[in-house]
Write the C-alpha coordinates for this entry.
Amino acid sequence: MTASYDLAIIGGGGAGQMAILRAALNQLNSVVFLGDAKAKKRSRHIWVHNVENIPGMFDLKNPISHTEKEVLNFIASRNELSDKVKTVKQSVTKIQKIEAGFSLEAAGTTYQARYVVLCTGTMDVQPHIQGSIEPVFPYANRGDILYCIRCDGHKTIGKTCAVIGHSTSAGWVALTLKERYQNPKIYVLSNGRPFEGSMEVRELLDLYNIEVFEDPILGINGDPKSHMEGFQLAEQSIAAERAFVVLGSIVHNDLARQLGVELDEREHILTNAKCESNVPGFYAVGDLVSGKKKQVYTAWDMAVDAVDDIDGKLRTQRRKELLDKK
Ligand SMILES: Cc1cc2nc3c(=O)[nH]c(=O)nc-3n(C[C@H](O)[C@H](O)[C@H](O)COP(=O)(O)OP(=O)(O)OC[C@H]3O[C@@H](n4cnc5c(N)ncnc54)[C@H](O)[C@@H]3O)c2cc1C
Protein backbone atom coordinates (compact mmCIF):
# COMPACT_ATOMS: atom_id res chain seq x y z
CA MET A 1 0.00 0.00 0.00
CA THR A 2 1.23 3.52 -0.78
CA ALA A 3 2.33 5.36 2.36
CA SER A 4 0.46 8.61 2.88
CA TYR A 5 1.70 11.78 4.66
CA ASP A 6 0.52 15.27 5.50
CA LEU A 7 3.63 16.76 4.02
CA ALA A 8 6.50 15.83 1.69
CA ILE A 9 9.70 17.87 1.92
CA ILE A 10 12.01 17.49 -1.09
CA GLY A 11 15.65 18.45 -0.37
CA GLY A 12 17.60 18.66 2.88
CA GLY A 13 19.99 21.56 2.16
CA GLY A 14 19.76 25.12 3.45
CA ALA A 15 15.97 25.37 3.08
CA GLY A 16 15.01 21.72 3.54
CA GLN A 17 16.66 21.36 6.95
CA MET A 18 14.55 24.16 8.43
CA ALA A 19 11.38 22.79 6.77
CA ILE A 20 12.14 19.37 8.34
CA LEU A 21 12.74 20.86 11.79
CA ARG A 22 9.61 23.05 11.64
CA ALA A 23 7.47 20.12 10.43
CA ALA A 24 8.74 17.91 13.29
CA LEU A 25 8.21 20.66 15.90
CA ASN A 26 4.68 21.25 14.54
CA GLN A 27 4.05 17.46 14.70
CA LEU A 28 3.21 17.13 11.00
CA ASN A 29 3.30 13.59 9.68
CA SER A 30 6.07 14.11 7.11
CA VAL A 31 8.21 12.30 4.58
CA VAL A 32 11.54 13.92 3.83
CA PHE A 33 13.56 13.22 0.66
CA LEU A 34 17.21 14.17 1.20
CA GLY A 35 18.30 13.43 -2.39
CA ASP A 36 20.70 10.76 -3.68
CA ALA A 37 24.47 11.25 -4.10
CA LYS A 38 24.01 12.79 -7.57
CA ALA A 39 21.51 15.38 -6.29
CA LYS A 40 23.81 16.27 -3.39
CA LYS A 41 26.74 16.73 -5.77
CA ARG A 42 24.83 19.21 -7.92
CA SER A 43 23.49 21.17 -4.95
CA ARG A 44 24.87 24.55 -3.94
CA HIS A 45 25.39 23.90 -0.26
CA ILE A 46 28.22 21.41 -0.74
CA TRP A 47 30.32 24.34 -2.03
CA VAL A 48 29.89 26.27 1.20
CA HIS A 49 33.04 25.59 3.21
CA ASN A 50 32.59 28.35 5.75
CA VAL A 51 29.98 30.99 6.57
CA GLU A 52 30.93 34.40 7.93
CA ASN A 53 27.61 36.25 7.67
CA ILE A 54 25.46 34.21 10.08
CA PRO A 55 26.03 34.36 13.84
CA GLY A 56 26.72 30.90 15.28
CA MET A 57 28.22 29.50 12.07
CA PHE A 58 31.68 31.14 12.06
CA ASP A 59 33.53 28.13 13.46
CA LEU A 60 31.67 25.39 11.56
CA LYS A 61 33.37 23.50 8.73
CA ASN A 62 30.94 22.87 5.81
CA PRO A 63 28.24 24.62 7.89
CA ILE A 64 25.13 23.76 5.85
CA SER A 65 25.92 20.03 5.68
CA HIS A 66 26.82 20.24 9.39
CA THR A 67 23.47 21.79 10.37
CA GLU A 68 21.57 19.32 8.17
CA LYS A 69 23.17 16.43 10.10
CA GLU A 70 22.55 18.23 13.38
CA VAL A 71 18.81 18.65 12.62
CA LEU A 72 18.41 15.00 11.61
CA ASN A 73 20.32 13.77 14.69
CA PHE A 74 18.29 16.02 16.97
CA ILE A 75 15.00 14.71 15.55
CA ALA A 76 16.25 11.10 15.75
CA SER A 77 17.17 11.62 19.42
CA ARG A 78 13.59 12.58 20.42
CA ASN A 79 10.91 9.90 20.07
CA GLU A 80 8.10 12.43 20.01
CA LEU A 81 9.70 14.10 16.95
CA SER A 82 11.17 11.08 15.13
CA ASP A 83 7.76 9.32 15.23
CA LYS A 84 6.50 12.01 12.87
CA VAL A 85 9.33 12.13 10.30
CA LYS A 86 10.24 9.47 7.75
CA THR A 87 13.59 10.13 6.07
CA VAL A 88 14.33 8.83 2.56
CA LYS A 89 17.88 9.21 1.23
CA GLN A 90 16.72 9.25 -2.38
CA SER A 91 15.74 11.79 -5.02
CA VAL A 92 12.16 12.34 -6.10
CA THR A 93 12.05 11.81 -9.85
CA LYS A 94 8.33 12.07 -10.59
CA ILE A 95 5.44 14.04 -9.13
CA GLN A 96 1.76 14.16 -10.03
CA LYS A 97 -1.28 16.00 -8.73
CA ILE A 98 -3.92 13.60 -7.41
CA GLU A 99 -7.21 14.17 -5.61
CA ALA A 100 -5.67 13.58 -2.17
CA GLY A 101 -2.74 15.94 -2.87
CA PHE A 102 0.36 14.66 -4.63
CA SER A 103 1.89 11.35 -5.65
CA LEU A 104 5.70 11.22 -5.57
CA GLU A 105 8.10 8.60 -6.88
CA ALA A 106 11.59 8.00 -5.47
CA ALA A 107 13.80 5.00 -6.34
CA GLY A 108 10.81 2.99 -7.58
CA THR A 109 8.63 3.60 -4.49
CA THR A 110 5.48 5.73 -4.56
CA TYR A 111 4.48 8.05 -1.71
CA GLN A 112 1.44 10.30 -1.23
CA ALA A 113 1.33 13.65 0.50
CA ARG A 114 -1.36 16.30 0.89
CA TYR A 115 1.19 19.11 0.68
CA VAL A 116 4.67 19.43 -0.83
CA VAL A 117 7.53 21.80 0.00
CA LEU A 118 10.13 21.83 -2.78
CA CYS A 119 13.67 22.74 -1.62
CA THR A 120 15.84 21.46 -4.48
CA GLY A 121 17.84 24.68 -4.87
CA THR A 122 19.96 25.97 -7.73
CA MET A 123 23.54 25.65 -9.00
CA ASP A 124 25.83 28.44 -10.19
CA VAL A 125 26.74 28.32 -13.88
CA GLN A 126 30.51 27.72 -14.16
CA PRO A 127 32.83 29.39 -16.67
CA HIS A 128 34.29 27.20 -19.42
CA ILE A 129 38.04 27.39 -19.83
CA GLN A 130 39.24 25.75 -23.05
CA GLY A 131 35.89 23.94 -23.17
CA SER A 132 35.98 22.57 -19.61
CA ILE A 133 34.73 23.66 -16.19
CA GLU A 134 37.27 21.43 -14.39
CA PRO A 135 40.08 24.04 -14.06
CA VAL A 136 37.79 26.14 -11.82
CA PHE A 137 37.11 23.52 -9.14
CA PRO A 138 40.41 23.40 -7.19
CA TYR A 139 40.40 27.20 -6.89
CA ALA A 140 36.69 27.26 -5.98
CA ASN A 141 37.35 24.63 -3.30
CA ARG A 142 40.17 26.79 -1.90
CA GLY A 143 37.86 29.84 -1.83
CA ASP A 144 39.94 31.79 -4.38
CA ILE A 145 37.03 31.64 -6.84
CA LEU A 146 33.79 32.84 -5.24
CA TYR A 147 30.11 33.01 -6.21
CA CYS A 148 28.19 35.18 -3.74
CA ILE A 149 29.25 38.77 -3.05
CA ARG A 150 26.82 39.06 -0.12
CA CYS A 151 28.46 36.00 1.51
CA ASP A 152 32.08 36.40 0.51
CA GLY A 153 32.71 39.92 -0.84
CA HIS A 154 34.73 40.85 2.28
CA LYS A 155 37.17 38.00 1.51
CA THR A 156 38.58 40.14 -1.35
CA ILE A 157 39.68 43.03 0.89
CA GLY A 158 43.21 44.09 -0.05
CA LYS A 159 43.28 41.63 -2.98
CA THR A 160 43.30 42.02 -6.77
CA CYS A 161 40.05 40.64 -8.10
CA ALA A 162 38.44 39.58 -11.39
CA VAL A 163 34.73 39.25 -12.10
CA ILE A 164 33.91 36.58 -14.68
CA GLY A 165 30.73 37.43 -16.57
CA HIS A 166 29.38 39.35 -19.54
CA SER A 167 26.17 40.85 -18.17
CA THR A 168 25.10 44.06 -16.43
CA SER A 169 24.98 41.99 -13.21
CA ALA A 170 28.67 41.09 -13.60
CA GLY A 171 29.40 44.80 -14.07
CA TRP A 172 27.49 45.64 -10.88
CA VAL A 173 29.44 43.05 -8.88
CA ALA A 174 32.71 44.68 -10.03
CA LEU A 175 31.36 48.16 -9.15
CA THR A 176 30.12 47.02 -5.75
CA LEU A 177 33.49 45.45 -4.93
CA LYS A 178 35.22 48.72 -5.83
CA GLU A 179 32.84 50.91 -3.83
CA ARG A 180 32.75 48.64 -0.76
CA TYR A 181 36.22 47.20 -0.57
CA GLN A 182 38.48 49.48 -2.64
CA ASN A 183 40.35 46.47 -4.05
CA PRO A 184 43.75 47.49 -5.47
CA LYS A 185 42.71 46.32 -8.95
CA ILE A 186 39.49 44.89 -10.41
CA TYR A 187 38.85 43.47 -13.89
CA VAL A 188 35.81 42.13 -15.71
CA LEU A 189 36.52 39.08 -17.88
CA SER A 190 33.68 38.27 -20.28
CA ASN A 191 35.49 35.10 -21.40
CA GLY A 192 35.00 35.17 -25.17
CA ARG A 193 31.56 36.80 -25.15
CA PRO A 194 30.78 40.43 -25.96
CA PHE A 195 30.30 42.41 -22.74
CA GLU A 196 26.58 43.29 -22.53
CA GLY A 197 26.68 45.75 -19.60
CA SER A 198 24.22 48.67 -19.67
CA MET A 199 25.38 52.20 -20.54
CA GLU A 200 25.22 53.16 -16.86
CA VAL A 201 27.46 50.22 -15.88
CA ARG A 202 29.95 50.97 -18.69
CA GLU A 203 30.21 54.62 -17.58
CA LEU A 204 30.81 53.62 -13.96
CA LEU A 205 33.40 50.96 -14.90
CA ASP A 206 35.24 53.74 -16.83
CA LEU A 207 34.97 56.08 -13.84
CA TYR A 208 36.63 53.50 -11.58
CA ASN A 209 39.20 52.38 -14.19
CA ILE A 210 37.82 48.85 -14.19
CA GLU A 211 38.90 47.30 -17.47
CA VAL A 212 36.77 44.79 -19.37
CA PHE A 213 38.57 42.03 -21.32
CA GLU A 214 36.48 40.08 -23.82
CA ASP A 215 39.15 37.51 -24.82
CA PRO A 216 38.55 33.88 -23.85
CA ILE A 217 40.23 32.76 -20.64
CA LEU A 218 42.88 30.21 -21.63
CA GLY A 219 43.95 29.11 -18.17
CA ILE A 220 44.18 29.92 -14.47
CA ASN A 221 47.61 30.98 -13.25
CA GLY A 222 48.84 29.91 -9.82
CA ASP A 223 49.10 26.68 -7.85
CA PRO A 224 45.74 24.99 -7.19
CA LYS A 225 47.17 23.66 -3.91
CA SER A 226 48.25 27.01 -2.48
CA HIS A 227 47.12 30.19 -4.28
CA MET A 228 45.63 31.75 -7.39
CA GLU A 229 47.62 34.37 -9.32
CA GLY A 230 45.16 35.24 -12.06
CA PHE A 231 43.96 34.40 -15.55
CA GLN A 232 45.75 33.78 -18.81
CA LEU A 233 44.34 35.47 -21.90
CA ALA A 234 45.87 35.20 -25.41
CA GLU A 235 47.82 38.46 -25.21
CA GLN A 236 48.31 38.99 -21.49
CA SER A 237 48.00 37.68 -17.94
CA ILE A 238 45.44 39.29 -15.62
CA ALA A 239 46.59 39.45 -12.00
CA ALA A 240 43.77 38.34 -9.68
CA GLU A 241 44.12 36.70 -6.27
CA ARG A 242 40.33 36.32 -6.06
CA ALA A 243 37.55 36.03 -8.66
CA PHE A 244 33.76 36.15 -8.62
CA VAL A 245 31.76 34.09 -11.09
CA VAL A 246 28.57 35.89 -12.18
CA LEU A 247 26.99 33.75 -14.90
CA GLY A 248 23.53 33.02 -13.48
CA SER A 249 22.01 29.82 -12.11
CA ILE A 250 20.75 26.43 -13.18
CA VAL A 251 17.44 26.11 -11.31
CA HIS A 252 16.50 22.61 -10.15
CA ASN A 253 12.86 23.10 -11.07
CA ASP A 254 12.19 19.83 -12.97
CA LEU A 255 9.58 18.61 -10.46
CA ALA A 256 7.81 21.99 -10.51
CA ARG A 257 7.73 21.83 -14.31
CA GLN A 258 6.09 18.39 -14.17
CA LEU A 259 3.17 20.06 -12.36
CA GLY A 260 2.99 23.13 -14.62
CA VAL A 261 4.13 25.49 -11.84
CA GLU A 262 4.55 29.12 -12.96
CA LEU A 263 8.16 30.28 -13.35
CA ASP A 264 9.71 33.73 -13.89
CA GLU A 265 11.90 34.64 -16.88
CA ARG A 266 14.96 33.26 -15.03
CA GLU A 267 13.13 29.97 -14.42
CA HIS A 268 12.77 30.57 -10.67
CA ILE A 269 9.47 29.58 -9.06
CA LEU A 270 6.80 32.25 -8.54
CA THR A 271 5.07 32.00 -5.16
CA ASN A 272 2.80 34.05 -2.91
CA ALA A 273 4.02 35.53 0.40
CA LYS A 274 3.63 32.12 2.12
CA CYS A 275 5.71 30.42 -0.61
CA GLU A 276 2.77 28.60 -2.24
CA SER A 277 2.94 28.32 -6.02
CA ASN A 278 0.05 28.61 -8.49
CA VAL A 279 -0.55 24.85 -7.94
CA PRO A 280 -2.52 24.72 -4.66
CA GLY A 281 -0.67 22.78 -1.97
CA PHE A 282 2.69 22.93 -3.78
CA TYR A 283 5.18 25.22 -2.01
CA ALA A 284 8.76 26.19 -2.92
CA VAL A 285 11.41 27.60 -0.57
CA GLY A 286 15.10 28.49 -0.81
CA ASP A 287 17.28 29.50 -3.72
CA LEU A 288 14.85 28.38 -6.43
CA VAL A 289 12.17 30.93 -5.41
CA SER A 290 11.78 34.03 -7.58
CA GLY A 291 12.81 37.42 -6.21
CA LYS A 292 14.44 36.26 -2.96
CA LYS A 293 17.97 36.55 -1.62
CA LYS A 294 19.95 33.32 -2.16
CA GLN A 295 20.98 33.00 1.48
CA VAL A 296 20.65 30.45 4.26
CA TYR A 297 18.73 32.73 6.65
CA THR A 298 16.28 33.66 3.83
CA ALA A 299 15.78 29.97 3.08
CA TRP A 300 15.12 29.31 6.77
CA ASP A 301 12.52 32.07 6.98
CA MET A 302 10.72 30.90 3.83
CA ALA A 303 10.71 27.32 5.17
CA VAL A 304 9.04 28.42 8.42
CA ASP A 305 6.43 30.49 6.52
CA ALA A 306 5.59 27.58 4.21
CA VAL A 307 5.38 24.86 6.88
CA ASP A 308 3.41 27.07 9.28
CA ASP A 309 0.97 27.90 6.47
CA ILE A 310 0.49 24.20 5.70
CA ASP A 311 0.09 23.48 9.42
CA GLY A 312 -2.60 26.19 9.60
CA LYS A 313 -4.49 24.69 6.66
CA LEU A 314 -4.35 21.16 8.09
CA ARG A 315 -5.55 22.35 11.51
CA THR A 316 -8.37 24.39 9.95
CA GLN A 317 -9.55 21.36 8.00
CA ARG A 318 -9.38 19.04 11.04
CA ARG A 319 -11.18 21.62 13.19
CA LYS A 320 -13.91 21.88 10.53
CA GLU A 321 -14.28 18.09 10.42
CA LEU A 322 -14.68 18.05 14.23
CA LEU A 323 -17.28 20.83 14.16
CA ASP A 324 -19.15 19.11 11.29
CA LYS A 325 -19.33 15.88 13.32
CA LYS A 326 -20.83 17.71 16.32
C1 LIG B 1 30.26 29.07 -2.61
C2 LIG B 1 29.00 29.47 -1.89
C3 LIG B 1 29.10 30.12 -0.66
C4 LIG B 1 27.96 30.49 0.01
N1 LIG B 1 28.08 31.11 1.21
C5 LIG B 1 26.98 31.48 1.89
C6 LIG B 1 27.10 32.18 3.12
O1 LIG B 1 28.20 32.46 3.58
N2 LIG B 1 25.96 32.56 3.75
C7 LIG B 1 24.70 32.25 3.23
O2 LIG B 1 23.70 32.61 3.86
N3 LIG B 1 24.57 31.59 2.06
C8 LIG B 1 25.67 31.21 1.38
N4 LIG B 1 25.54 30.55 0.17
C9 LIG B 1 24.19 30.31 -0.34
C10 LIG B 1 23.57 29.03 0.27
O3 LIG B 1 24.39 27.95 -0.03
C11 LIG B 1 22.17 28.83 -0.29
O4 LIG B 1 21.40 29.98 -0.11
C12 LIG B 1 21.46 27.65 0.38
O5 LIG B 1 22.24 26.49 0.33
C13 LIG B 1 20.12 27.45 -0.32
O6 LIG B 1 19.45 26.35 0.21
P1 LIG B 1 18.51 25.45 -0.74
O7 LIG B 1 17.89 24.47 0.17
O8 LIG B 1 17.66 26.32 -1.57
O9 LIG B 1 19.51 24.70 -1.73
P2 LIG B 1 20.68 23.67 -1.37
O10 LIG B 1 21.27 24.01 -0.06
O11 LIG B 1 21.56 23.62 -2.57
O12 LIG B 1 19.95 22.26 -1.19
C14 LIG B 1 19.31 21.57 -2.23
C15 LIG B 1 18.98 20.17 -1.71
O13 LIG B 1 18.07 19.54 -2.61
C16 LIG B 1 18.42 18.17 -2.73
N5 LIG B 1 17.81 17.71 -3.99
C17 LIG B 1 17.99 18.20 -5.25
N6 LIG B 1 17.19 17.54 -6.12
C18 LIG B 1 16.48 16.63 -5.38
C19 LIG B 1 15.46 15.69 -5.69
N7 LIG B 1 14.98 15.53 -6.93
N8 LIG B 1 14.94 14.92 -4.68
C20 LIG B 1 15.37 15.08 -3.40
N9 LIG B 1 16.33 15.98 -3.06
C21 LIG B 1 16.87 16.75 -4.03
C22 LIG B 1 19.93 18.14 -2.69
O14 LIG B 1 20.41 16.87 -2.28
C23 LIG B 1 20.20 19.23 -1.62
O15 LIG B 1 20.23 18.66 -0.34
C24 LIG B 1 26.66 30.20 -0.55
C25 LIG B 1 26.57 29.54 -1.78
C26 LIG B 1 27.73 29.17 -2.46
C27 LIG B 1 27.61 28.46 -3.77
Q: What stands out?
A: The chain has two domains: 3-123+249-325, 126-245. The chain has a mean pLDDT of 97. Residues 10-16, 33, 35, 39-40, 43-45, 47-48, 51, 53-54, 64, 91-92, 119-121, 124, 147-148, 151, 252, 286-287, 294-297, 299 surround flavin-adenine dinucleotide (CB under 6 Å). The longest strand covers residues 109-118.
